[in-house]
Structure formats: C-alpha cells, structure tokens
Model the fold of this input.
Amino acid sequence: MNRCWMMGVCCLLMAFATQATAQSVERRQVVFVDQNEDSTKFYIDELEYAVIDSTVTTTPVYKYLNLKRKSGADARIYLSDVKNIVFKKVTEPTELPTEAPKVGDYYYSDGTWSDGGLVSINSDGTNPVWATVKPAPLPGKTVIGIVAMTDHERMAQSDKDAGYTHGYVICSKFVHDPNNRNTKTGEPFPTTKFTWDEEFTCNIGVKVSGVSWYADIDGRNHCNNAVDYYGNMLVTMCPTIYYTNIMSHPSTSSEWFIPATGQMWDALANLCGNRVAQQMKGWRSNENDATYYCSAYVYDDPMEIFNSTLALVADSDKELLETDDELHNYCSMWTSTRYDESAMDIFEVGKKHTEGLYKNKGLIECMAAWYNGDCYARPMLAF
Done:
C-alpha cells in the first residue's frame, strides 16, 4: 500500500514537467482520497510544485505533501490520512449556458448552471414564486452549489473587476476541518473554529450595525487578506479559511471563500422564503448593533425552505442545514466579517418550533461568535 502511495506521489511530481504543453479542453486533476473515502481535488495546472515535508513541532513527526499553488494557500496533505491518489481528466465546456442564471439555479462542477425552478423574485428577496414541479439537476453533472444572488449591483467591485459578473453561488456542502474532533470519541465535528489567533489582526474590517452588515460584500478580499497574512501558518491559525480556500472550483469561477455579512445576507434573503426576506429588508437601514436589533421569529421554517433548494440534489453532493445541538433550534454560520477584537459576525437560521412559546415559528438572526467558537462554514464563490 505504501509503495503504491509513493508511486502516486512520484507521478504527481512528474506531472509538473509536462502539464504546461497540454493543448486540450481537458484538464488534469489529482484527487486525494482519505481513510473515510472523502476526497480533496486539485487541478494540476493550478499547482507550481509538490514536495514532501514534515512537521517540526509535533510528536510524533508527521510527513505531508505540500502543494504549492499558483494562487491561494499552499495545501498540506498528510500522508497518514491518504488512502489513495487518483489522476483523471476532466472536460469543462468551452461555452457557458446562453440563459442568464437565476436565484435557486443548480451550479455544477464544470462552471455551468441549470434551472432550479424560480419563476420570479424581487431584488430584495421578497415575493418569490417557484415552479409547482421543481426541475431536477441535469443528468451526468455534479452539483456543487445553488445560485444565491444575481444582482450585479450587489457584487463586490473587486469580483467584477476580476471578470465575475453573474453573481454568487452558495456551496451545497459545509467546509470541514478534519482536525476539529471530539477528544473523547475522535469523531470530527461538523463545525469549524474560525481562528485560533486571539488577536486576528489581518486586514478584515469590523461591522456592528445592520447598515454595515448589509454593506459588506468583500468576503473574497477578507479571505485573501487572511491567506496573505498567515502564509503557511494559515492551516493552523485560521482553519476555516484554509479548508475553504483549497476547495476545488471551476476554472470560470473564483475560488471558494467565506462570505462577508452582506453576501450571506443576500443568500438568506433569497433562499429562506418571503417572510425572512421581509424581515431582513427592514434591517438594512438599522443603525444599531445588529446582534441586538436584527433578530426575528417568523411564521415559517427558514431552514427547511433553504434546504428545499437542494431537495433533488444527490445525497453525495449536499449537506443540509442542521441545528447546532440539542439546546439550539438553529444553524449558526460563519461570515468573514469581524464583530470586534474577539468575535466574528455570524447568521443563525432557525428550524420551525413544533411546540412552546415559538410554536410554528423559525428564527432568523444576526449574531456574533468567539473566534474559537463552533459554527458551520458555508462558503460561496463568484462566477
């Protein structure tokens, strides 16, 4: 097994000598499969080199394959975690669909999209109308997200300058940190720690009021600032951004990033139903602290409505929003916007209560969590 594994590493190292001469629409991909059959994928042409290295501060010492990427964080693949390495060719279309994407559309691993059933929606997310029969994803394609926002005016200028003009996609899965485990059982948590750096002084602005939350749409820049600031320490100091940044993405899109407050705001207003959108519309002009004044229980099930956009997606290609634990009836999700010197802004999306004071109501709320708190990471990309 070890011999086969090392042969795979050697093949990867040799690939860099030939990949630049390829003249084809096919792209070569290397896939690392771990002991749990989960996979991490990289395009060969996005890598500069690969070297085997080892830790210097751990006991025992762990060997890892360090993948130097042309942009973004260096990827660290621990040898002990790898069960298999697969090399394959992936064909991506040379032309994108002629129909403009809509909120709710399926977004695929090849950078294309197809109808998700939306008939109409207001720019603020209110009054959505969906088809009676929801269209299914196209056969033979892999869904990686749902189109969450298509308003050109709500895209970051840096994203538009980079050529991304369609909107934003929210991932169909969470980001996971394999090192964030239960110390008693060894089982990985579905949540992540945003950062272990108590000071977290990289260039990410503080946003407190509802007005400032809605205005911040620079999530990709926030994450790139953290990548540049921490360098090779990103994997240990800011795991949420690291494991987001190394996710594979289509060549026609940006890299994945943790959305800023305004980007997650738009996604939830568009994908959590009319009553949520109506509440959030009123918060846009709120000058007060959003964690106190931007919270509401609505007669609806925001979590179920969001999850319904993924209803026909293959189980292997999705993870539904879920409640934090037995005490909470909501899903807490990170943003890349800071709340203060020790906390990040987060959104909480609730599941409808079936009894008690809030029976038949679900929560939508702006909140904050400590840097080392446990929240779900739901990334986005620009396309």
In short: Residues 215 and 326 are 34 Å apart (CA to CA). The chain is about 20% helix and 25% strand. The first strand starts at residue 26 and ends at 34.
